Amino acid sequence: MALLLWLGSQLSSIWSNISILGVFLTVFALLLDFMKRRKKWSRYPPGPASLPFLGTMFSVDFHNPHRSFSQLQKKFGNIFSLQNCWTNLVVLNGYKTVKEALVHKSEDFADRPPFPIYEHIGYGENSEGIVVARYGHVWKELRRFALSTLRNFGMGKKSLEEHVVEEAGFLCSEIMSEEGKSFDIQVLLKNAVCNMICHIVFGDRFDYGDETFKKLLQLFQNSLDEETGFLPQLLNVVPILVRIPGVPQKAFQAQKELMDFIDVAIEKHRKTWDPAYTRDITDVFLKEMEKGKAAEENGFHYNNLRLVTLDLFTAGSETTSTTIHWALLYMLLHPEIQSKVQEEIDRVIGRERPPAMTDQASMPYTNAVIHEVQRCGDVVPLGIPHRTYRDTELQGFFIPKGTTVIINLSSVLKDETVWEKPNEFYPEHFLDAKGQFVKPEAFLPFSAGRRACLGEQLARMELFLVFTTLLQKFTFVVPEDQPRPRVDSHFALTNSPHPYLLRALPR
């Protein structure tokens, strides 16, 4: 009996000690969390209440973050703060705010935050590609390389323009084979635009029915879907979770498969590389790598070749094809606008000759419609997060160095102080009283400043040539047995239309 009493007292003592330890650890964790979340800066932007450990993550719908930001903007103003766990974020809204940050204080907001969810495919120190690379010497060298190489391969020149027109012709042939029946055009648009990037990066194109090509396009879409929602945000701000064996492989399987595809393509390219003959951007990068240690210090090494290639594919295909997808949707919903575009095409180009970039200056209405598609479609509502390169001030608020900054481009493209009808499809936003094309400064679908989209000129060329070719050859209508298509969007890093069917009637 005495033994049982003694054991009971010992267990009670142990339990008491465990309880005390548990209370101590809980209090310590809460204090540590409070210290991590405590804002020690005066004039820091306001924001919603921050919960222990998770911060303000429940204040944002990560499947529609730009819409959450619109609601928070109404409550806290054009500059407000959030906190993903212990990561400080500031969201910038409205044209004046975004312009001041990206144009007038360009270098202050030129950095990028780390993205741990990309580490498993090769991102790391000195291996960051271009799009998500930290601001500094290597990023400047690689961006300069990409811009100059795109120019040399015909960006704005006839050679690349002819290639885009040729691919638009292949696209029209595929559409013609539908014989006016109801179909979903989304995959064909992705085929065409992705082939344009394949030509620039690998000097070749795929047949639309090629099984490898189909797999590549599916991997692109799956990769975008994987990076949307709460889980990727949590893994980025609690990077220790990404380093648990098997987690990134399971959470980002398509991302890894897409990188594997690019590795195979590059290796095949290297085996056929002839330094005396330049076929594409990959060849130019390989030639830079041959320059030795100095080139490697400037970022020209094999891992960056992989990542730059991935950057060009993902940034150059999804956004442009999605914009054209929006354009056709708006033509279905506004047949009177489609007719006016076709009248201008017939008058300036005719029905036989392919469109050329020199036609654009003579086609103000078509140009206005394309720009309104970009504004209203709002394809990249948030862009890629920025990071402050140094302590800075913006409209009276202090934003410390190392703060992640979200640029709400959607709030610029729909800014009620700038656009007459911000929530309607209204091409007159880009026309003056005489019907001539004008471009308001708040038109920033490609962002602005040092981190503006490096493929902007290429995208503009593709949009004009493909859109005018399609409307030159076809009239697009809603099938009689189909409901009116939805005008709201689906968000997966980009804003895309919900699936819809159309009929393409040859003109």
UniProtKB/TrEMBL annotation:
Heme binds at C453. GO terms for biological process: alkaloid catabolic process; arachidonate metabolic process; coumarin metabolic process; estrogen metabolic process; isoquinoline alkaloid metabolic process; monoterpenoid metabolic process; negative regulation of organofluorine metabolic process; oxidative demethylation. InterPro entries: Cyt_P450, Cyt_P450_CS, Cyt_P450_E_grp-I, Cyt_P450_E_grp-I_CYP2D-like, Cyt_P450_sf, Cytochrome_P450_fam2. GO terms for molecular function: anandamide 11,12 epoxidase activity; anandamide 14,15 epoxidase activity; anandamide 8,9 epoxidase activity; heme binding; iron ion binding; oxidoreductase activity, acting on paired donors, with incorporation or reduction of molecular oxygen, reduced flavin or flavoprotein as one donor, and incorporation of one atom of oxygen. Its cofactor is heme. The chain crosses the membrane at residues 14-34. Keywords: Heme, Iron, Membrane, Metal-binding, Monooxygenase, Oxidoreductase, Transmembrane, Transmembrane helix. The keyword Transport does not apply. The keyword Secreted does not apply. It holds the Pfam family p450. It is found in: Membrane. GO terms for cellular component: membrane; mitochondrion. Belongs to the cytochrome P450 family. This is Cytochrome P450 family 2 subfamily D member 6/pseudo. It comes from Serinus canaria (Island canary).
